[in-house]
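Sorry, can you check?
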Amino acid sequence: MVMEVNMQAASLWDAIEDADVSRREDKQALAALLRSTPPEMHPMLMGKGSAKATWETIKLQNQAMTMYATCTCGVCGRSSR
């Protein structure tokens, strides 16, 4: 994922993988995540409390969107015709 590589390049990935980071590092990582997401997602992400929790939410959201986009169940309205 592009966001992950960008955070690694900025030395912010530790805040995602390790819960034992300084408050400053966590907030820097959180700010980077918010800059990388559309404004519509911000209200959902702001209350997560940490960069790690925010990352997990983004990851789950992306998985759900991928599942919906590839769904052929017919119930969700995305059936193949």
User: Anything to note?
Assistant: Residues 16 and 52 are 4 Å apart (CA to CA). The chain is about 60% helix and 0% strand. The chain has a mean pLDDT of 84. Helices lie at 2-9, 14-17, 23-35, 42-46, 51-70.
